[in-house]
Amino acid sequence: MDPFDAAILAAGRGERLRAHGPDLPKPLVMLDSETLLARQARILLQAGARRVLAVVNSETAAIIRSDGVALPARLSVVVRDTPNSMETLFEFGRHIDSGRFLAATVDAIVEPAEMTRLVRRADTLPGGEGALGVVRWRGDERPLFVEVDQTGLIRKVGASSGCVVTAGVYFLPQSIFGFRARAREAGLSALRQFLGAMVEWGVPLHAVDMGEAIDIDVAEDLTAARRLIARASTSLSRRGGSR
After folding, report:
1. In terms of residue numbers, what domain contains 131?
2. Does residue 140 register a pLDDT over 80?
3. What does the alpha-carbon distance between residue 111 and residue 209 come to, in Å, rounded to a whole number?
4. Residues 94-111: pLDDT tens digits?
5. I need a surface site. Which of 49, 75, 103, 121 has the fewest CB within 10 A?
């Protein structure tokens, strides 16, 4: 496929996690001896990205500098105190020069193989179309429900109920940045709102089942993420042993 960049939305402070978990910006929380930021960058690179850009806030950047936090070589950090997740996404429009790009929130924990499968599925789509990773809803407190038709095309993002939710991973055409002015004029202020608007404004987005994903919002989610990683590692070992 054509070379593509990857982007990590990591500008939030993670207040809910900090309230009862590590008192750190969410990108620097450790998961199995690796920060969430480094882990996400590593997986995006494994999925085929030629480079990864991450938008972090000034607090996160200061800790990275002062503590010498280790980050992958092909990860570039952009420091912006953006007001919301939609504006964090829009910041990438100033830096990404590939026709399409792979994006993920820093706290979306998925199996590396599923990230790669999303990329392969997206590669079969026409250039102006995108793909959203989805999973079955398992009781998350703030789910972003999506309605999907029989062909896999997303008909609505932000439904009031359902059984399928976004996984926090997206493969998007660079052309979405052309909607910045329209989104701001409409008063949108969150990534989830912008995703819903893109569907309404005619951008074809396709759902790709990613099996399971953990969104790190509270301390208990870290435990669930470790279980997911352990299961994936066990499954990979068994497949390797059966060859």
Report:
1. 5-235
2. no
3. 12
4. 999 999 999 999 999 999
5. 121
pLDDT beyond 90 at 241: no
Domain membership flag for residue 241: no
Give me the residues paired with residue 135 across strands. Answer: 165
- CA 108 to chain CA centroid, Å, is 6
CA-CA distance, 163 to 201, in Å (whole number)?
Answer: 24
> What mean pLDDT do residues 212-222 have?
93
Q: Is the dihedral of CA 12, 219, 229, 120 positive or negative?
A: negative
Residue 20 one-letter amino acid:
H
C-alpha 235: how far from chain center: 23
- Strand pairing of 145-148 and 75-79? unpaired
pLDDT per residue as tens digits for the range 71-100: 999 999 999 999 999 999 999 999 999 999
For residue 154, tell me if it sits in a domain: yes
Please give the pLDDT value at position 22: 86
In the chain, how many domains are there? 1
Question: Which pLDDT value is given to residue 238?
Answer: 59
Rg (the chain; Cα; Å): 17
Contact assessment for residue 102 and residue 7, using Cβ atoms and an 8 Å cutoff? yes
